[in-house]
Structure formats: structure tokens, C-alpha cells
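Run log // design_07
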């Protein structure tokens, strides 16, 4: 992955209906989203020139905006087409794509009822979220001190920028300790998710995954559940307590960026990336490129 800063790259970003030169796709320092986190986004990947599950991603973007009390001024189909257009404009076939919608700078204060709603879509090359060699042997996670909040305190089904503050804190802390990522519990002390991915555990012929009742039911998560069921694997969605990790044999995380990534360690618990993890990695790769 390129180390070039994200504000200094060639090409264009789709922004409010126009192809804007990358370096000119800017917003004002007094934008409401910067101060009050009134921003929603999607992370999606293109494989072989096609954005995987684009319709679902765009529908969720609209849903997330509604959860934050604003309406994106472009239809789902208009956004889908803009995603295809910017992918073609940038000349990419395998890439990561980031649509983002936010309240602008027309009002400054907690209330911003009449602020303009902006939309931008950027796309860039982003191969693997984790180093390939680390991914194959299984990444190492610590356990975060931060917990996913109660649904009574946040719009937990929205993919909203503000909800990722504790994810950044958790991942930074994990990296300082030599880990690749961090596992977060929820407000009840149950296993929730990694900082940007859902988590699965294998025990025997069963695949266990936390019920997403206070965090995102990821699109990749849904896809992998379908792939596992196609292999005849029993899926059990339930509340999982941390000490149960002692009895699981395999673990992997799923997400648009992470795809399917085996896990070898979470805090004091150890796992061996095995046949199921590898099969689902291959199944997912085959599906997104089909």
C-alpha cells in the first residue's frame, strides 16, 4: 500500500456531483462534521472492476444518514453510478472505495438543521489490510479497555464516524503493544467485535459469532455466514463471554478491509488457523472475483 499522504495523490474524487481534482477535494475547518461527528461513510471494495455488494453498501449509507437525522441529496442509484464512474475515472479495477456524507459549514453549533449535506467518493489501491504473511499465520489481537456502548446511547446500527473514536484508541493501543488489532467487548462485558471487523469462532462443526445487537452486522459478515452455511457449517449467533474463548479452536475476523483474516491470539487465548478459516478465505476470494 502506498505511503503517500491521502491529501496529495493524483487523479480525482467524486464530490457533490463533480469530478474534483484530488488535491482540491477539501472542506472548511468549521464544517459541522469535524466538530460534532455528523458524518457517515461506507468502506467497499472493487474486484475485477466491480464494486462488491454495491447496492447493499449504498442502501446502508442512506440508512446511516437517516439515523443521524439527515438525508443524502442523491438517490441510491445515483450514488451507485457515481461509484462506478469514479472507479473508471481513476483507472482502477481492484481497489478500496470510501463514500462519505457529512454536514457542512453553514451552521456552527450543536444544532445544524439547515447545513448542507455533502457527499464525496474516493477510490484508491489498497491490497491487504494486514501483511499477507501475518494474515496467513493468524493475526494477534489484544483486548481493548474500551467497550461498545449500549444502543440507548448511540445510533449503533449506523456506520457513523463518531462511533469509530474508541476503535482508533483501541487499535493504536494494540499496535503500541505489538498486536495487529484489538477485540472489543460490549457494555455488558460480552464479546462484540474487532475495531473494524466482526469476529467468528469455531468449535467442532459449529461456527459461533456474537449477536450484533449493539454493533454493525457487517456486509462481509453476512456474506461469510452465507458461505459457511453453503459448506454445511452450523452458524450459532449468540452472546459470547470472554472466558469462552478457552474452548474455541479457530478464530477469524471479517470485514471489507480485513476480508476473511484468521486470528492466532486474543490476549491470553490461542487459536490455530485451520481448514475452515482457509476454506472460507478461498470461498470469499472466489466469490468477490466471480
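design_07 sequence
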Amino acid at each position: 500500500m502506498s505511503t503517500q499522504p491521502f491529501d496529495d495523490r493524483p487523479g480525482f474524487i467524486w464530490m457533490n456531483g463533480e469530478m474534483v481534482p484530488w488535491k482540491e477535494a477539501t472542506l472548511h475547518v468549521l464544517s459541522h462534521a469535524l466538530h460534532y461527528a455528523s458524518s457517515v461513510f461506507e468502506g467497499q471494495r472493487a474486484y475485477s472492476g466491480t464494486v462488491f455488494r454495491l447496492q447493499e453498501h449504498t442502501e446502508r449509507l442512506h440508512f446511516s444518514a437517516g439515523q443521524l437525522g439527515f438525508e443524502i441529496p442523491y438517490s441510491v442509484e445515483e450514488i451507485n453510478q457515481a461509484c462506478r464512474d469514479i472507479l473508471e475515472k481513476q483507472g482502477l479495477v481492484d481497489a478500496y472505495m470510501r463514500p462519505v456524507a457529512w454536514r457542512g459549514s453553514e451552521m456552527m453549533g450543536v444544532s445544524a438543521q439547515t447545513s448542507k449535506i455533502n457527499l464525496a467518493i474516493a477510490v484508491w489501491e489498497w491490497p491487504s489490510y494486514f501483511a499477507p504473511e501475518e494474515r496467513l499465520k493468524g493475526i494477534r489481537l489484544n483486548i481493548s479497555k474500551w467497550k461498545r456502548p449500549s444502543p440507548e446511547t448511540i445510533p449503533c446500527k449506523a456506520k457513523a464516524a463518531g462511533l469509530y473514536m474508541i476503535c482508533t484508541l483501541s487499535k493504536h493501543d494494540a499496535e503500541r503493544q505489538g498486536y495487529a488489532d484489538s477485540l472489543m467487548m460490549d457494555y455488558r462485558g460480552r464479546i462484540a467485535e474487532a475495531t473494524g471487523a466482526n469476529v467468528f469462532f469455531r468449535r467442532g462443526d459449529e461456527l459461533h459469532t456474537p449477536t450484533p445487537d449493539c454493533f454493525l452486522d457487517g456486509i462481509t459478515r453476512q456474506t461469510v455466514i452465507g458461505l459457511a452455511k453453503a459448506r454445511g457449517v452450523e452458524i450459532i449467533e449468540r452472546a459470547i463471554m470472554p472466558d469462552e474463548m478457552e474452548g474455541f479452536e479457530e478464530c477469524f475476523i471479517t470485514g471489507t478491509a480485513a476480508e476473511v483474516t484468521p486470528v492466532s491470539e486474543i490476549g491470553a487465548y490461542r487459536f490455530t488457523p485451520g481448514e475452515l478459516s482457509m476454506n472460507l478465505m478461498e470461498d470469499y476470494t472466489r466469490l468477490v472475483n466471480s
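The radius of gyration is 19 Å.
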